[in-house]
Amino acid sequence: MKLAASTLDALGNEVGVPTYDRTAVTPGIVHFGVGGFHRAHQAMYLDRLMGDGKALDWGIVGVGVLPQDRRMADVMSAQDCLYTLVVKHPDGTLEPRVIGSIVDYLFAPDDPNAVLARMVDPATRIVSLTITEGGYHVNQVTGELDASDPSLAADLEPGATPGSAFGFIVEALARRRAAGVPPFTVMSCDNIPGNGHVARKMLSSFARLKDPEIAAFLETEVRFPNCMVDRITPVTTDADREALAERFGVEDGWPVVCEPFTQWVLEDDFGLGRPSYEDVGVQIVEDVEPYELMKLRLLNASHQALCYLGYLAGYRYAHEVCQDKLFVDFLLGYMDNEGTPTLPPVPGVDLDRYKHQLIERFANPEVRDTLARLCAESSDRIPKWLLPVVREQLAADREIKRSVLVVASWARYAEGTDEQGDPIEVVDRLRDKLVERAQHNTDDPLVFVSDPDLFGDLASDERFVTQYKAALKSLHEIGARATLEAL
């Protein structure tokens, strides 16, 4: 059965479907970056609310600005913006549910004015973002806007039609201001420390280059709540599509698969109201930072700790790595001795239980999260998630050996061949620069970490350098597994 509004009633009882009248749902949120995570997380929470008869005026209009978003536009159009969210339990149970909270999808390159019209509409009260860590154009060392990206440069031309998320947001705010419409709230849902603060800073820097008056308006009038988001959502595979069709009779062009666990911690800072997210399990708090640091430095940094070493050792999935006691001991050692000492108290959280729960989540064999996914875009991840731990531990004269080994394993992975001599497909916006540097690792062991744009001045820290060189040498001479055993 092809998934569409007209076929919902014909789906079997094993598939959950919207119990609310989707024709009664009106848009209230414009979302940039409709990928797997958004559909497994924010859209899912809203669907739950709508199932309780609430938030029917908070429907989501998705927006794609990148060329590769055309495929999502085609699938959404063919399926009336419906999709199946499949929760994969560790025992092999699949729990499919059709999500109906997205009511429209706009492919910006085809009709940028339609996107602007929707954003300027007074009904739009929130513009949310899952545009990846790199989508905020932050220079990793200075923390300032890197305006060199071609999409930003094009949007800064006088009279330019927007092409980037930043361009659309600033132009829409300018038009709302001119029309006397109060500004929407910008809600970042990306894995960045202080994501609301970062969104405010980068957008205001961009606006200052384009129109200082709008920049001043953005800085004083627009709300940017911080939040922490968590749900492991691997890339959808053809096998996932086939399983949904064969076991449940649903033909879905782009279903989403995810783990059972989900968490959203959100700061209550909205200018024009918000859905009652707390009614469906979202934690509304005054200060997100402790939860955010917990997640970034334990979960996200642990993903980096397992992915390069695991890949070099011959594994290809996260669950394979986390069913290996050697790797589990390494991950818990990192979390206990290096990640946790950098964290402030986290209200209401048992950190020891949280860390062991992370290992259980990573070890879920049904999720089949690929190491290749976790190894991608490292230049946007390691500087934000792991290097702050290294710096804090160095400043306090505490242990850094596991964190340093992770950095060395990234450098070894970026060489582009594994321990069997097979090619590695390095996926990173800085791929060419990273690979070129990494291929000189043997003759200049500090070449990789001497990039100030990624590592700042770490290459001049004697303690870091000594341990890094030893770790990289070990990876080259005896390989990842033996290096872990020695550690």
TrEMBL record:
This is Mannitol-1-phosphate 5-dehydrogenase. It is an enzyme of class 1 (oxidoreductase). GO terms for biological process: mannitol metabolic process. It catalyses: D-mannitol 1-phosphate + NAD(+) = beta-D-fructose 6-phosphate + NADH + H(+). Pfam families: Mannitol_dh (PF01232), Mannitol_dh_C (PF08125). It comes from the Bacteria. Residues 28-276 form the Mannitol dehydrogenase N-terminal domain. Its EC number is 1.1.1.17. Belongs to the mannitol dehydrogenase family. UxuB subfamily. Keywords: NAD, Oxidoreductase. It comes from Kribbella jiaozuonensis.
